[in-house]
Amino acid sequence: APGLRSSPFPRSAQLEKEVATLREKIHHLDDMLKSQQRKVRQMIEQLQNSKTVIQAKDAVIQELKERVAYLEAENLEMHDRIEHLIEKQVSRGSHSSRARSKSEYVSRYAGNTLTGPKPLPLIRVVET
Predict the structure, then answer these.
(1) What is the DSSP string of 9-53?
(2) Cα–Cα dist 69/120, whole Å
(3) How many angstroms separate the CA atoms of 37 and 45, rounded?
(4) Could you read off the pLDDT tens digit of each residue along the chain, which spans 128 residues?
(5) Rounded to the nearest 10 degrees, how much is the dihedral formed by the CA atoms of 87, 90, 93, 96?
(6) Nearest to 83 by CA among 101, 100, 71, 70
(7) Are 78 and 109 in contact (CB under 8 A)?
(8) Distance CA 51, CA 101 (A)
(9) What range does the record give for the signal peptide (predicted)?
């Protein structure tokens, strides 16, 4: 009878050892999983931050493109005005009318500056 009782104990001890080993492996795998999840969360956060930065830079770029288009249109308009004034000066050939045209131009330009930029919908911005 004592031999029968002693035989289950070694099996029980072996099973307990296997359970302890498996628990240790599970704990190790759980730690690895948590570590990987932390890394993935950090990468997602970095991607979101990068996306936010890129969107902000894209907005600035778009704003600058619109500003450049506006300034180019304004520049062309000024060139046209200057050419027109030069043609008037050449056709009249008098010094006094030249001064008046120049002051007219300055007052017109100053007026445009004070009233603000021209409406942008008239300017087409082509994205590439």
Answers:
(1) HHHHHHHHHHHHHHHHHHHHHHHHHHHHHHHHHHHHHHHHHHHHH
(2) 9
(3) 12
(4) 444 445 558 889 999 999 999 999 999 999 999 999 999 999 999 999 999 999 999 999 999 999 999 999 999 999 999 999 999 888 876 554 444 444 454 444 444 444 444 444 444 445 55
(5) 50
(6) 101
(7) yes
(8) 52
(9) none
- Structural contact between residues 105 and 87, judged by C-beta atoms closer than 8 angstroms: no
Altogether, the residues listed in the chain come to a count of 128
Buried/exposed 36-74: b ≥16 CB within 10 Å, e otherwise: eeeeeeeeeeeeeeeeeeeeeeeeeeeeeeeeeebeebb
Other CB atoms within a 10 A radius of the CB of residue 102 amount to 13
Enter the tokens of residue 45.
Answer: 């956060």
Do 89 and 101 touch, CB atoms closer than 8 A? yes
Q: Tokens 């308009």 — which residue?
A: 77
